[in-house]
């Protein structure tokens, strides 16, 4: 396996290796991939294959702004792997999004789909834009032009986008409509996370938070802790963070701290989450000025003593510098990549159980799969059915990883990579390489 170790630095990639900072999401992904490859004794060819994205598409997106100026944005779509099925993954709009980040996120989607046994490969898209700086018509033109430029990439049997950071059901509706117009027929299954009236699935909006909670409850039960006695800290109060906080609150847990871009809010007696959600919804989706808790910094929030910490904001929040100060017993990764690879060992040594992102937040893509199935059947499920199936799949996936982690005496994260990579590699061996 020493060759595999060397391959990371000597550059086997088809794509040029991006500039890697110590904590870059791509480095974190590769370090964990590398560890699992060693456990599985993956041969070198397979390692090369699975560490190279299948396709990297970069487009420029010119749009006419409301004042008549032409502005040009940069957009990406990375298909990491489509061995298990059409590639699947969200599109994020952020002015600091990079190709390196999108590549890591695309690979995470491959592993995530494999972990929850949905028949999809992994992809991710990004547009370098802060959508807050665009009017609604500008955002629509940007989305339509991005979709048009990606027309050959997207498709219900090829590559299926979904919402991610700063994108939502309206943006998915524009993608669906643009693709359908170019096809001359309505093609609902080209995108998931759509409004329900356009073929979206009931329960899709809450699915990621619901999956975070199902896997957190499964972890608590392995530690024989009752949810009603737990204290919870949630970083991020967007869709994933707020739904996770609400569902844990409904389990009787005490949510002692929450945060959003305006800062952290701490109340050791527990925060009234429905009230916080109402406050945020009626104040432009911001907790600024929320009086049900005392203000704290984001850093203080992460380091609070609690049973469960749910980082549901961004990548790289827990790194080697603050990992030694984390006092949570369980970290349930609502966001993609909130813990850097070089923090893994520190958390492990300190006995913190980490439910990895590729399991914890897989509820979103799981219900995306349900949405795609419903669109293709033209038959729609009740919310109760969606939630029941989601809970079952998340619980089964947790149990599968738990067995792998016991078998090899490894962490749940390592088990998730081992399980996922094994699944993709086994499928590739059966399919073989097309020549
Ligand atoms: N963006 C979400 C994720 O990172 C959902 C992807 C999807 O549903 O395709 O898992």
Report on the architecture of this protein.
This protein is α/β, with parallel strands linked by helices. It has three domains: 1-51, no CATH class; 53-187, Leucine Dehydrogenase, chain A, domain 1 (Rossmann fold); 207-360, Rossmann fold (3-Layer(aba) Sandwich), CATH 3.40.50.720. The protein is built from 15 helices and twelve strands. It has helices at residues 2-10, 25-40, 44-51, 99-115, 136-149, 169-183, 204-222, 239-250, 273-282, 298-302, 341-349, 357-360, 363-377, 383-408, 412-431; strands at 55-64, 70-81, 87-93, 121-127, 159-163, 231-235, 254-260, 263-266, 294-296, 308-311, 330-332, 353-355. A seven-stranded mixed sheet has the order 9-8-7-6-10-11-12. Strands 1-2-4-3-5 form a five-stranded mixed sheet. Strand 11, helix 11 and strand 12 form a beta-alpha-beta unit. The longest helix has 26 residues, at 383-408. It starts with a helix and ends with a helix. Residues 1-20 have low confidence and may be disordered. Glutamic acid (GLU) is lined by residues 88-90, 162, 164, 192, 336, 361, 364-365, 368. Glutamic acid binds next to strand 3 and helix 13.
Distance between the termini: 27 Å
Name given to the CATH architecture of the largest domain:
3-Layer(aba) Sandwich
Biggest pleated-sheet summary: 7 strands, mixed
Q: What Rg do the Cα atoms give?
A: 21 Å
Secondary structure class reads alpha/beta
CATH-assigned homologous superfamily of the largest domain? NAD(P)-binding Rossmann-like Domain
The total number of structural domains is 3
CATH topology of the largest domain: Rossmann fold
């Amino acid at each position: 396996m020493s060759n595999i170790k060397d391959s990371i630095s000597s550059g086997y990639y088809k794509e040029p290796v991006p500039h890697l900072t110590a904590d870059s999401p791509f480095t974190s992904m590769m370090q964990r991939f590398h560890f699992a490859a060693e456990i599985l004794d993956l041969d070198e060819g397979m390692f090369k294959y699975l560490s190279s994205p299948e396709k990297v598409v970069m487009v420029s997106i010119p749009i006419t702004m409301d004042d008549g100026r032409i502005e040009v944005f940069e957009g990406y779509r990375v298909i990491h792997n489509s061995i298990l099925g059409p590639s699947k993954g969200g599109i994020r709009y952020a002015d600091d999004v990079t190709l390196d980040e999108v590549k890591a996120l695309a690979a995470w989607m491959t592993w995530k789909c494999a972990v929850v046994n949905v028949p999809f490969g992994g992809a991710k898209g990004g547009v370098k834009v802060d959508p807050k700086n665009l009017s609604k018509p500008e955002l629509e033109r940007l989305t339509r032009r991005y979709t048009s430029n990606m027309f050959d990439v997207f498709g219900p049997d090829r590559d299926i986008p979904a919402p991610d950071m700063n994108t939502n059901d309206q943006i998915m509706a524009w993608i669906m409509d643009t693709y359908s117009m170019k096809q001359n027929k309505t093609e609902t299954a080209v995108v998931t996370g759509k409004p329900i009236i356009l073929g979206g699935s009931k329960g899709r909006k809450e699915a990621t938070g619901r999956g975070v909670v199902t896997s957190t409850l499964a972890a608590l039960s392995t530690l024989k802790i009752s949810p009603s006695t737990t204290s919870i800290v949630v970083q991020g109060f967007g869709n994933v963070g707020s739904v996770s906080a609400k569902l844990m609150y409904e389990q009787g847990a005490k949510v002692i701290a929450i945060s959003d871009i305006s800062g952290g809010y701490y109340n050791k007696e527990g925060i009234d989450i429905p009230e916080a959600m109402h406050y945020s919804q009626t104040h432009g989706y911001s907790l600024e000025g929320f009086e049900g808790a005392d203000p704290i910094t984001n850093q203080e929030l992460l380091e609070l003593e609690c049973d469960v910490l749910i980082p549901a904001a961004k990548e790289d929040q827990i790194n080697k510098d603050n990992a030694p100060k984390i006092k949570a017993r369980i970290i349930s990764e609502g966001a993609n990549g909130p813990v850097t690879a070089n923090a893994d060992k520190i958390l492990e040594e300190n006995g913190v159980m980490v439910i990895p992102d590729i399991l914890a937040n897989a509820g979103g893509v799981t219900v995306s799969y349900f949405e795609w199935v419903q669109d293709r059947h033209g038959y729609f499920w009740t919310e109760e059915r969606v939630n029941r199936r989601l809970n079952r799949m998340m619980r089964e996936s947790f149990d599968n990883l738990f067995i792998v982690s016991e078998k090899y005496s490894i962490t749940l994260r390592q088990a998730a990579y081992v399980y996922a990579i094994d699944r993709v590699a086994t499928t590739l061996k059966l399919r073989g390489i097309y020549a």
